Amino acid sequence: MTTYHETGDKIKGYKILCEARQIKPPKVIPKTGRHKAQRTILKDNAEATILAKVKYIGD
Questions:
Q1: pTM for this model (two decimals)
Q2: Distance between CA atoms of 49 and 29, rounded to whole angstroms?
């Protein structure tokens, strides 16, 4: 499995597991139309793993 650790690296998935020593409170952000999403910051030894891949990736 590849591990990404450079600034700007991204992962994308349907379900992602995250772990960190410090987690900032989530903030609500706009996505498309009336849909909302949440964003947070993981700090100190943070890592994320994709548990389920996306069925369709549209950029």
A1: 0.74
A2: 22
